[in-house]
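Field log, afternoon session.

UNIT: design team B
ACTIVITY: writing a sequence onto a fixed backbone
BACKBONE:
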């Protein structure tokens, strides 16, 4: 008799790679001379962060079999991510990226190989059936056959009533065919429930001329019911079914390295969502995780107290709620 496998909180599909992040703080990769090796790739980062927060996660990715692939495998295992759906193929090389360490937008160069060669038939249906959330990024959609693999997984997940999450981290340096990117994103978004674009993502996809509210509307038009729009120092807007329901301000913070902060935020949001928190409280929890990441180079701490982070998020939410009520009371008084 076959024993049923445990459910997965998050199944992350797409790129798992090696990040070489500069030791020097610099906005320009050309100024960096020394690099430190880390596990990388947005879906892999999210899977790791979910595991560090006590969730169960797995990656569906393709690598080679050499030294970098062995590093990727061991790092995923060390962080508690299931590797049962990791495809290691001797015909491929593992994708690597060189990234500048900076508090702003990192400069990067990527040598792509194995990640985009993931084929639809290499993803077992069981992986989707076990997952509560299926997540991928625009990076994974930029080339075939991985694009079709993500499309297959998203369609299966939506048909099974799963939460489908997409990070639209579009970059012309990764996906130079902008018209094609717009079309593929429109096609894939029909399966997506929830998405997290940044202002930079939105400008790269739709152009620089729109307001935040207009960008959010454009994302809703493609299909997602929930849009979490991150605006760096201006905070986060949360929109559900076409209407903005809340704004969560950013807090001033001295950032050591911005690489992976968005992945940390999204992992926190997804974990809180599965814990039954409403979207606004999910954002407050996610903000705590992102701030932890901004204060360090490399991955989040191995030990994170989920309940302590929730307590900090609840306190921040209560404080913000009180300020909003006081502001409304003051506005009403002045109106009289």
């Amino acid at each position: 008799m076959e024993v049923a496998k445990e459910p997965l909180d998050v199944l992350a599909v797409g790129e798992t790679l090696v990040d070489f992040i500069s030791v020097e703080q610099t906005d320009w990769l050309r100024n960096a001379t020394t690099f430190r090796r880390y596990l990388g790739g947005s879906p892999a980062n999210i899977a790791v962060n979910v595991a560090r927060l006590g969730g169960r996660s797995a990656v569906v990715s393709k690598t080679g079999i050499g030294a970098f692939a062995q590093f990727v495998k061991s790092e995923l295992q060390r962080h508690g991510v299931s590797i049962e759906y990791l495809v290691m193929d001797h015909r491929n090389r593992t994708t690597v990226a060189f990234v500048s360490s900076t508090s702003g937008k990192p400069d990067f160069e990527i040598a792509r190989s194995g990640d985009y060669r993931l084929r639809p038939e290499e993803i077992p249906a069981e992986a989707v059936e076990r997952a509560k959330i299926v997540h991928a990024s625009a990076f994974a959609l930029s080339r075939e056959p991985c694009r079709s693999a993500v499309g297959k997984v998203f369609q299966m997940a939506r048909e099974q009533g799963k939460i489908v999450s997409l990070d639209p981290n579009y970059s012309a340096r990764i996906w130079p065919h902008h018209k094609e990117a717009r079309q593929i994103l429109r096609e894939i978004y029909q399966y997506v429930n929830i998405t997290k674009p940044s202002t930079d993502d939105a400008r790269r996809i739709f152009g620089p001329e729109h307001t935040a509210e207009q960008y959010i509307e454009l994302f809703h038009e493609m299909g997602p019911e929930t849009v979490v729009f991150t605006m760096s120092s201006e905070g986060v807007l949360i929109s559900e079914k076409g209407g903005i329901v809340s704004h969560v301000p950013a807090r001033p913070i001295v950032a050591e390295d911005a690489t992976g902060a968005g992945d940390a935020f999204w992992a926190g949001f997804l974990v809180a969502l599965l814990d039954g928190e409403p979207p606004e409280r999910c954002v407050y929890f996610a903000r705590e995780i992102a701030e932890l990441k901004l204060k360090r180079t490399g991955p989040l701490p191995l030990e994170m107290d989920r309940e302590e982070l929730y307590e900090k998020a609840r306190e921040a939410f209560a404080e913000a709620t009180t300020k909003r009520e006081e502001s409304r009371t003051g506005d009403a008084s002045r109106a009289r």
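LOG NOTE: The first strand starts at residue 8 and ends at 13.
NEXT ACTIVITY: expression trials, pending approval
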